[in-house]
Amino acid sequence: MSVEWQPHVVVASIVEREGRYLIVEEMIAGERRLNQPAGHWERGETLLEAVCRETLEESAWDIEPRSLLGIYIWQPASLPYPFVRFAFVADAVHHHPDRKLDDGILRALWLTPEELRAREPELRSPSVLQCIDDHRAGRSYPLSMIQQRSEPTT
Predict the structure, then answer these.
(1) 14 touches 90 (CB < 8 A)
(2) How far apart are alpha carbons 112 and 134 in whole angstroms?
């Protein structure tokens, strides 16, 4: 029996404030990892709704997406499927300091690109630094590039 190949679609927010980026510290398979607020796109959501929800759940920050940074595909050697990451540049709008974070999320923090590079072995994927580098290089695509349509339900 063959395993069906099915990429995992995820969203991530790239939020920069005064030279620091919003990062979450999380436990993955018993190890501390650093990532942008990110997670799986769920049924019934638009990609923009998903990135706002994931960022709030993981960092306690409401965000406002401004642009699409890029689409990143990563195939971990340890998994039979790739991740397709839609990364969005967003503004931090409002913090909810008393909000409980998702299970596995230890904390949200603001790190400079240099601080992230110094902790590169802790990064969840190579997409973390690639997104920071692309943001710093000015990469940006209009949100209108994403055309999401659904058939009406009856």
Answers:
(1) yes
(2) 14
- The three-class DSSP label of residue 123 is strand
For residue 122 the two structure tokens come to: 């802790």
So what's the pLDDT on residue 152?
73
State the pTM of this model.
0.92
CA end-to-end span of the chain: 36
Burial class of residue 130 in the structure, from the number of CB atoms within 10 Å of its CB (0-12 exposed, 13-18 middle, 19+ buried): middle
**Mean pLDDT, the chain, as a whole number?**
94
Nearest to 108 by CA among 154, 43, 62: 62
Bridge partners of 141?
68
How far apart are the C-alpha atoms of 24 and 21, rounded to whole Å? Answer: 10
User: Which string of DSSP letters, residue by residue, matches 22-90?
Assistant: EEEEEEETTEEEEE-SEEE--TT--HHHHHHHHHHHHHSEEEEEEEEEEEEEE--TTSSS-EEEEEEEE
> What is the Cα 136 distance to its own chain's centre?
16
Strands 83-95 and 31-35: unpaired
